Amino acid sequence: MTDRTFHFVRHEHVPHWLQSGWIATPILEGTHHGQWSVCMEWLCDCPMVRPRPALDLNATLQNFLDTCVIHRVPDLQPESANHERAASGT
Q: Which three-class secondary structure state does DSSP give residue 55?
């Protein structure tokens, strides 16, 4: 029996995985998981490579701001931020 290695990869990261030698499989096509990811498989007998896509700092910051409770709800912001807002009149 041979072990097989699979990894779910978000659509935007698939090119990085393909360039690293992974193969896209149709396993997730037509499923709700396939809306977000592609199942990639490592077929080579050589050491497995997991790519590290370039970090998009703007997207990372925006995702943080969109999901961070402190930044979404003004009443929960740190005390210093409340003072700065009061001083600026916003």
A: coil
Q: How far is CA 70 from the centre of its chain?
A: 21
Residue that wins the pLDDT comparison between 56 and 37: 37
- 28 falls within a domain: yes
Q: 13 vs 30, 31, 56, 87, CA distance in Å? A: 19, 19, 12, 44
One-letter amino acid at 27 equals I
Q: How many domains does the chain have?
A: 2
Q: What is the pTM of this model?
A: 0.55
Is residue 17 one of the residues assigned to a domain? yes
Q: Which domain holds residue 74?
A: 57-88
Task: Count CB neighbours of 17 within 10 A.
Answer: 21
Q: Residues 39-84: pLDDT tens digits?
A: 999 998 888 888 875 655 555 566 666 665 555 555 544 555 555 5
Count of residues for the chain? 90
Residue 48 lies in a domain: no
